[in-house]
Amino acid sequence: MDDTDNRAKHNPFAPPATPVEDAAVEAGDPAGRGARLIATLLDALALGALTLAVGLFGSVTALRFAAASAMAYVVGFGVPFLLFIVLQAWLLKRRGQTLGKAAMQIRIVRTDGSRASLTRLLALRTIPMWLVMLVPVVGPLAALLDNLMIFRPSGRCLHDDVADTMVVCA
């Protein structure tokens, strides 16, 4: 072996030869069923409180200035619902949490532990279930099935399976 071969093996300017593996992303501990239930109830209470606050003020104002009760209904229920959806979407995009999940210190992630995008959360996890629930007879049964699936060993609901997400402790 000559000196040139030896220098090639010990070149100080060569890139490191040590293999580096990507760090695994941990999903965290799955959130308990009770925490998930309370978070859902808190979300419903927050929507109800916002609807009551904006709805009462908006409906009274709309009825005072316009005789159209449809406008009062839109202002009373549509505006608070849209405000709530925008707030929840902002929280989901920013932190993977809704108001209720933030209060219960849990969040939604992908099953590999990575952050779930807002598109995934809305387009795969939320909107399809809402649309199915609008179908008479089938909708309530689908909602019941979705919620009962939390009692599987994985603790994931049907909407979690569809979106490849899970709820973990934050």
Automatic annotation (TrEMBL):
**Parts of the chain that traverse the membrane:** 37-58, 70-91, 127-145
Q: Which residues form the RDD domain?
A: 31-163
Q: Keywords in UniProt for this one?
A: Cell membrane, Membrane, Transmembrane, Transmembrane helix
Q: What is this protein called?
A: RDD family protein
Q: In its keyword annotation, does this UniProt entry include Nucleotidyltransferase?
A: no
Keyword Protein biosynthesis among record annotations:
no
Q: Which domain of life is it from?
A: Bacteria
Q: How does it sit in the membrane?
A: Multi-pass membrane protein
Q: Which PANTHER family match?
A: MEMBRANE PROTEIN (PTHR36115:SF4), PROLINE-RICH ANTIGEN HOMOLOG-RELATED (PTHR36115)
**Where are the annotated segments for Disordered?**
1-21
Q: Which InterPro entries match?
A: Pra-immunoreactive, RDD
* Record localization: Cell membrane
Pfam families xref list: RDD
